[in-house]
Amino acid sequence: MSKKKKAQMSKTLVEKILDKAKIPYQQYEFPTHAEGDVAQLTVDHLNVPEHDIYKTLALTGNKTGPVIAVVPIDEHVDYKKLSKASGNKKVGMVPLKDLIATTGYEHGANTPIGIYETHHYPTYFAKEAEAEDTILVSSGKIGRSVGINPKQIVQFVHGEFADITAPEN
Questions:
Q1: Torsion of CA 93, 96, 101, 106, to 10 degrees
Q2: Would the pTM count as exceeding 0.85?
Q3: CB under 8 Å to 151, separation ≥6 — which residues?
């Protein structure tokens, strides 16, 4: 009798970058074809608290150009706070039509790891992440995430923790 090998997910480019940097992570995969609130589907499927799942947002500052904000999915980036933290007078979201040209990723796949690797944009993580042992960020492909220590990822992308969030209304 032959033993069945457990199917392992192929690695995304981001996971390969983390392997090369010897940064430990956990792979996560969730359904992307279901209808409904993607954030809620992710929480339900992965059995992970919503506040531990982070979204990567691409913004542009009037002085610095592109700026990356990494915030929990249950919060919003506060433009005034991010402007102050990044040394800009004003920041705004990168238009969807310019997202791939700016970050190299489509909407829903932006990842601070891959963006840093190719562009070295200034990256700011919500200060709440600093108190967590693990946060989930996209691994550069829709439906894929990595669970990673926030202090290690901030160090890797030369980012910083900052007060940049506002609760959802």
A1: 110
A2: yes
A3: 130
Q: Quote the CA–CA distance of 4 and 25 in Å, as a whole number.
A: 25
| Tens-level pLDDT at each residue, the chain (169 residues) | 444 444 567 899 999 999 999 999 999 987 665 555 555 555 566 677 888 999 999 999 999 999 999 999 999 999 999 999 999 999 999 999 999 999 999 999 999 999 999 999 999 999 999 999 999 999 999 989 999 999 999 999 999 999 999 976 6
**SS3 assignment, position 11:** coil
Query: Would you tell me how many other CB atoms lie within 10 Å of the CB of residue 89?
Result: 9
What is the maximum span of the chain, computed from C-alpha positions, in angstroms? Answer: 67
Distances (CA, A) of 169 to 57, 72, 74, 76: 19, 14, 10, 9
Q: How far apart are CA 164 and CA 160, in angstroms?
A: 11
Asked if 147 and 136 count as a contact pair (C-beta separation under 8 A), the reply is yes
Q: Return all residues near 79 (Cβ < 8 A) that are at least 6 apart.
A: 59, 90, 91, 92
Residue 117 identity: E
